[in-house]
Structure prediction request, 366 residues.
Amino acid sequence: MTLYPNLILDALRTVRYPGNGKDIVSLGMVEDDMRIDGNKVSFSLIFDRPTDPFIRSLVKSAETAILTHVGKDVEIQGNIAVKTRQVAPAPKPQVLPGVKNIIGISSGKGGVGKSTVSANLAVALAREGYKVGLLDADIFGPSMPKMFGVEDEQVYMHNVDGRDLIIPIEKYGVKMLSIGLLVNADDALVWRGAMASKALTQLIEQADWGELDYFLIDMPPGTSDIHLSLVQTLGITGVVIVTTPQEVALADVRRGIAMFTGEKVNVPVLGVVENMAWFTPEKHPDERYYIFGQGGAERLKEKFHVELLAEIPLVAAVGKHGDDGAPIALGDSITAQSFIHLAHNVIDAVDRRNSDLPPTVKVELK
Prediction:
């Protein structure tokens, strides 16, 4: 007797899957790998999960059906393989569907002005006409309420499509949230990393951020599980790393770059901001004193092939404006223009990242 695949399939159509009563051929459980060698027949049965309770009984039923409807001289016993169907995992819902670009602002160590850069970059982007959000993720040292002059503001919630969501504080065209708005300013936050990460996740997922062009995250200094949590929660477009010219700060930046570009995190570094690049007396804006050294960020650029996005001078007015709750980027001073310049370079870096274009040589504002 000559065996044909159609004869075998016709026999298998008499085998019903107990779960729904349909035959195993129409259910797509017979894989298209049937092999016939003389009277020997072999093929595979596919199940949705390896723990299917009907695996053994269906294999036996398939053998019996072939012997009954095709012939008893068919060699089939032990020739039916069992496979599990490969099901693609369901895509994770986007946490912030209305946000186009998510940018982390990070630093290798504290005290380099990361939060100052974050606040002024957010204001500068808003001045350029973009819709901007800012999350103060520096959970143990939240400073955005002070820098935006909203320390005494009350945070409210409203209902959106059946969900109660936190309403971000909006000022200077920037939507902002900080853990500092939800706790007493005089209380010390003694939280474990998991608690801090959960609090941040709530500020991200349970807030009404709406439509944004740029969502900036002022990250804690250093490298920690909070950084990993943020990266795992959000599809971060890239990070901007803030440093000062000292070698000790640059050493920490190297570790930060290694963390973000490593396999576990794998987030692009958009570039480096050298804060306090030089000291300029307010009454003598043309004078520069490199009190923390010079050229450190340029050396980082050459070694790690990261872009130098901006050099921000050390000017007393920057700190005063931050303390007064009115970031200096709101004005038109030379220092304000350096933050506008930073905003333009960040926009360009993000555009190149999104279009996968190679980096271009930038002209630094001197």
User: Anything to note?
Assistant: The longest helix spans residues 334-355. The chain has a mean pLDDT of 83. The longest strand covers residues 269-279.
